[in-house]
Specification:
This protein is α+β, with helices and mostly antiparallel strands and 191 residues long. It is built from four helices and four strands.
Amino acid sequence: MNGVSNLKDKILEEARQKASETLVAARADAKVSLDASRQEAEKAAAAILAEADRKAGNIALRLASQRDIESRSMRLAAKREVVSKAFDLSLVTLRSMDKKTYLGWMAGMIRSAQKEAAEVILNAEDREALGAELIEAAKGSLPLTLSAQTGTFIGGFILKEGLIETNGTFEVLTGAAREDLEGEVAALLFG
């Protein structure tokens, strides 16, 4: 029995030895596999971080560009507002002309525009203050009358010749001038 027991002990020892070697090899394989997985995970994490950095950089560029566009839009809007106020001020300046200059200007404009019998439409204030005087000053060889109708414009006149109306109101005249002068006014204000 001693021989069987020795054989059994020898087999068990070999089995333990083999199990120990297998365990060591398995641990080594696991460590290699774990290290490889760790390296792949680190590469993947680095790639994800690089992509996130790239995307963040693109977002930052877009935001900076958008901010620049918004800033330029705001500056442009402010400049447009200042130019508009300059033209609005021109209406106030025209309206504050002295009576003699205003009357002479309107009479000259009416005489140069009139081609046939006509009537002049004024705003209510001008009709009352200088209507009759304007008709007298603007009369040429063609019949000219003061209309009973009044306009809602700031100043100037509308010359009505039958179905044709010549608009000499401040709003229309400054609007036409604005188209021609807006660039120059902006250059003077901001150049």
